[in-house]
Write a structure and sequence with these properties.
elongated, five-stranded parallel β-sheet, alpha/beta, six-stranded parallel β-sheet, 20 strands
């Protein structure tokens, strides 16, 4: 039953949203005002959470996919008693405030995922639903429903226009994720105006075709009972994800309600005054919450605390009945890795036969999978090429399909790179899982919108990217990455690995797993590479290190830095320069520039010694290498279709061609000063 206090609470949210955006003179008041009824019903009647402990593991998850409407979420968090004060609302979108312009999970208490780029949030919610179903299948036992929460999301028209949402929603329907409920704010308005300008499909028919349970609330502005019935029905549907189309009026109550004029700009002082008068508030007062509204939300918060207490008691009983499962779940929730897991990783010597780094990665995955049950992920329809499925892997699939179980850990993403990355973010954000996602390196560009958010959100997602250069050969320039790694290296908070051999592959996995707050990209070869003298897991963790000197001089005449498959080419070049030209050459392997940058000045200069001419060799764009070497050698055109050795010959990445350039560089610096690089002040 709903009463006048519920109506007052909804109007309080609307007025607070108007005040919040108006004071900032920046933001989006329309969605919060239009979504206030559905959000109020959801948060006061359904969402189970404890504001005093926002990390309670079995809480329901809520995602605001249309993150531009974040004033709504901040207001709800404030009313419930999360660490969002009234002063925080007053400082909306201001420097160093607790209420940034879009929700950030690293910033504000109670925010589950960082949203704003449309379509990402609903896709993250799919990942969260996968995580919940997997953990429930793994840890729940009769009489012990330890993991049984629901994932809720509010999404708008823009979210459902984004391709990433379609990719993730399609997979969610196939996976029968009955723990996912999406409230679709169908207000018919976006920045350019009416959605009739370009979005006239029947969204519910599309979602029905995906395999979703669909519902409609005709009057989302005032039919609270209808909203409650629809959410209850959706929550009761356990074999399909549910989407509820809710017709709303954007900016409800404002002078420009129902138009694009309330989407992305403050209402204006006069309009805010009119809104307050319409809803019975004092037009002269700002940022007001009636006591009865606080009381209503405090009651719901207290119920959440009681639910957590009941869960804690259930966990205590679970620990007695299933001590091993309890210990494993507790470890995973805490984000701790099993003791001694690194010892299982393979190590190599130069006597071992050459192997492609994607194959070496497969060996590492097979070693880790039994030891790290939290490792869960898959490939975008390239399993046989990416080599990411371990020997006894079980697919994550609904049991009725006969294809696997929810306890399975291998995900079949299909050709959905962007959805795969966004889903992986949701799995990581849920907790107790470490997701990986795999495709060809060139096709991480499809996923860039989501993979960038991995870094911004400080989520440990492992991107296992194979076919990392022109070394993939005959598929040609459509598949050969050139600029891709430069883009990834330019993205803050990433670890980008391009390992040269087996020890560096193992080291890359160690570093990636040890950095719980950074995503990692593994750029792996299709072609075989030799194992290097001087490589090790430990050296890989430094990001760059010197291999044994080639030549007999007392000091190097030249430094050659290489990554991945070109490190062995750099060594062959050094041998040619030593044998035929009497040079002494230091070859430096640089599997991870970000880790190398984190080393001390003294260490970095001991590797890239000042005063010595230097070149780099990498079968990718030379962009970014001038920070480390004087003369980068790479590929600054698109690739070509040819057997890979012929491709390398054509672009000049062979010892003979590189040596000819190196000799000119060494000769030049005999009469010119050698600049000191990578100075930091």
């Amino acid at each position: 039953m709903f009463n006048q206090t519920d109506s007052l609470a909804i109007n309080t949210i609307r007025v607070l949203a108007a005040d919040t955006v108006q004071k900032a003179n920046s933001g989006h008041p329309g969605a919060p005002m239009g979504c206030a009824p559905m959000a109020h019903v959801l948060f006061t009647r359904f969402l189970n959470a404890n504001p005093k402990n926002s990390s309670w593991f079995n809480r329901d998850r809520f995602v605001l996919s249309n993150g531009h409407g974040c004033a709504l979420q901040y207001i709800l968090l404030h009313l419930l008693g999360y660490k969002v004060s009234m002063d925080d609302l007053k400082n909306f979108r201001q420097l160093d405030s607790n209420t940034p312009g879009h929700p950030e999970c690293t910033h504000t208490d109670g925010i589950e995922v960082t949203t704003g780029p449309l379509g990402q949030g609903i896709s993250n919610a799919v990942g969260m639903a996968i995580a919940e179903r997997h953990l429930a299948a793994t840890f729940n036992r009769p009489e012990f429903s330890i993991v049984d929460n629901t994932v809720y999301a509010i999404a708008g028209d823009g979210c459902l226009q984004e391709g990433v949402a379609s990719e993730a929603s399609s997979l969610a329907g196939h996976l029968q994720l009955g723990n996912l409920v999406v409230l679709y704010d169908s207000n018919g308005i976006q920045i350019d105006g009416s959605t009739k300008l370009g979005f006239t499909e029947d969204v519910l028919q599309r979602y029905a075709a995906y395999g979703w349970h669909t519902l409609t609330v005709e009057d989302g502005d005032s039919d609270l009972a209808g909203l409650e019935r629809a959410i209850a029905e959706a929550k009761g549907e356990t074999t399909r994800p549910s989407i509820i189309l809710i017709n709303t009026t954007i900016g409800f109550g404002a002078a420009k309600a129902g138009t694009a004029g309330v989407h992305g700009a403050a209402l204006g002082d006069d309009s805010v005054v009119a809104v307050k008068k319409l809803f019975g508030f004092d037009a002269e007062q700002k940022f007001v919450v009636p006591d009865e509204v606080y009381a209503l939300y405090s009651k719901r918060a207290a119920e959440g605390a009681q639910r957590e207490q009941a869960w804690n008691e259930l966990m205590q009983a679970y620990a007695k009945a299933h001590p091993d499962l309890h210990a494993e779940l507790t470890r995973r929730i805490a984000g701790e890795l099993p003791s001694g897991w690194e010892k299982a990783l393979p190590r190599f010597t130069p006597a071992d036969k050459p192997v492609a780094t994607r194959k070496l990665s497969e060996g590492v995955i097979n070693a880790l999978a039994p030891l790290l049950p939290e490792l869960i992920g898959g490939s975008a329809d390239l399993t046989g090429s990416n080599l990411t499925r371990w020997k006894d892997a079980v697919d994550f699939q609904p049991e009725p399909t006969g294809l696997g179980t929810y306890a399975g850990r291998y995900l079949r993403y299909g050709v959905r790179e962007h959805g795969m990355a966004a889903i992986s973010n949701g799995i990581a954000a849920y907790g107790a899982n470490i997701p990986f996602a795999s495709t060809f390196l060139n096709f991480i560009s499809y996923a860039a919108g989501a993979s960038r958010l991995s870094a911004l959100s400080k989520l440990r997602v492992l991107y296992i990217m194979t076919h990392d250069s022109i070394g993939l050969g005959e598929d040609g320039p459509t598949h050969q990455p050139i600029e891709t790694l430069a883009m990834l290296r330019a993205t803050p908070n990433y670890l980008n690995f391009r390992p040269a051999d087996g020890n560096e592959v193992s080291g890359a996995y160690v570093a990636a797993l040890q950095h719980a707050d950074r995503p990692s990209v593994f750029s792996l070869t299709r072609q075989n590479v030799p194992h290097l003298d001087g490589s090790s897991i430990e050296n890989t963790l430094k990001g760059g290190y010197a291999l044994p000197i080639v030549g007999s001089g007392s000091a190097p005449d030249l430094i050659i830095a290489g990554t991945g498959s070109e490190t062995s080419i750099a060594l062959d070049t050094a041998r040619l320069l030593a044998d035929k030209h009497g040079l002494t050459v230091k070859v430096v392997s640089m599997p991870c520039l970000e880790l190398f940058d984190a080393q001390s000045d003294a260490y970095r200069h001991s590797v890239l010694t000042p005063g010595i001419p230097s070149i780099s060799v990498e079968a990718l764009s030379s962009f970014g290498w001038h920070k480390y070497v004087h003369h980068p050698i790479g590929i600054d055109t698109f690739g070509l279709s040819a057997p890979y050795l012929q491709a390398y010959e054509r672009v000049g990445l062979t010892p003979t061609t590189i040596a000819a350039k190196a000799l000119k560089i060494v000769d030049y610096y005999k009469s010119h000063p050698v600049p000191t690089l990578a100075l930091q002040f």
